[in-house]
Design goal:
Pfam families: MlaE (PF02405). By secondary structure, the protein is mainly α. Helix content is about 85%, strand content about 0%.
């Protein structure tokens, strides 16, 4: 009996020891990633300004992710309208469909689903691209040419994601509300005046500001996490693949955590 108790205690100690090591490693990465981001941002006005590289990254992020944002926004609005109509119809409140679709998309679904799409489409690409630069020693070559990799590689990508995500989320919101209008008004017969009037009446400035703040924070966070994971990836093909997977998972989970925190402030 005492042997079983000793074995159980040893297993519990091993479990908590492992959890402690994971927690310490997570805190270490959080500190290292924060330091890398602030180091890169401190070079924002340093010469030579990386305007060309910033525009290239902004174009790749914005234009490259536009199609998936439009498709996701359209079907999200259509599903919301369809589901919302039959729920509201039970209470005789179909006229509130526009407000329900608009507030759901602008406050929550636009920023969160938009961020997920950008992580999958562009964030993984950023991590893999920087990781491959590490494998092929391009970052070392930049340092030998007296070019700061933080300024050339990290900074343009962080700034580009911080600006591109709010713009893409705005497009997501407009497309989603428009798709909800088509389904609600054209297919289900909701009064078009009531749809738009309730949307305008119920939507407040704090809803718009909350969505914008979330999108900006998500953009900065996606850029920081994905560049950090790529820059710190093991310089092997397996290391780059592992870093890319970790970047997508960590960025996605971080979006959900930060979304809960920000939502509690804007309610």
């Amino acid at each position: 009996m005492s042997e079983i108790s000793t074995t159980t205690q040893s297993g519990i100690a091993t479990f908590f020891g492992r959890m402690g090591r994971y927690a310490m490693r997570g805190i270490e990465h959080l500190g290292d990633g924060t330091r890398l981001a602030f180091h890169a941002l401190s070079l924002l006005f340093a010469k030579p300004w990386q305007g060309k590289h910033f525009v290239i990254q902004l174009y790749a992020l914005g234009v490259g992710s536009l199609a998936i944002i439009v498709i996701t926004g359209a079907f999200t609005g259509m599903v919301l309208a369809l589901q919302g109509y039959y729920t509201l119809a039970k209470f005789g409140s179909e006229s509130l469909l526009g407000a329900g679709v608009g507030m759901s998309i602008i406050r929550e679904l636009g920023p969160v689903l938009g961020a997920f799409m950008i992580i999958g489409r562009a964030g993984s690409s950023i991590t893999a691209e920087i990781g491959i630069m590490r494998v092929t020693e391009q970052t070392d070559a930049l340092e030998m040419m007296a070019v700061n990799p933080m300024q050339r590689i990290i900074l343009p990508r962080i700034i580009a994601t911080t600006l591109a995500v709010p713009l893409l989320v705005s497009i997501f919101d407009v497309v989603g509300i428009g798709a909800g209008y088509i389904v609600g008004v054209e297919l289900l017969g909701v009064n078009p005046g009531a749809y738009m009037a309730e949307l305008v009446a119920k939507l407040e400035m704090i809803d718009l500001n909350g969505g914008w703040v979330k999108a900006v924070v998500f953009g900065f966070m996606i850029g920081t996490i994905c560049t950090y994971m790529g820059y710190r990836a093991q310089p092997t093909t397996e290391g780059v693949a592992k870093a890319t997977t970790q970047a997508v998972v960590i960025a996605s989970v971080s979006v959900l955590i930060i979304d809960y925190i920000l939502t509690s402030f804007f309610l």
